[in-house]
Amino acid sequence: MMNTHRKNALIFLGAFVCCFLWGSAFPGIKIGYSLWGISGDDTWQIIRFAGIRFFLAGALVIAFASLMRRRLLLPEKNELGKIAFLSLFQTVGQYILFYLGLAHTTGVNSAVVDSLTSFFAIIVASLFMKMERLTPRKIAGCVLGFAGVLLINLSAEGFSFRPLGDGMVALSALCYGISSSLIKKYSANHDTVLFSGYQFMIGGVAMTIVGQAGTALSGEPSAAVTAPLGAAGILLYLALVSSVAYTLWGILLKTSDVSKISIFGFMNPVIGVILSALLLGEAGELGLKHAGALLLICAGIVAVNLSPKKVFHKKIAKITL
Question: In Å, what is the CA distance from 177 to each residue of 120, 125, 165, 169, 308?
Answer without folding.
Answer: 5, 8, 19, 13, 26
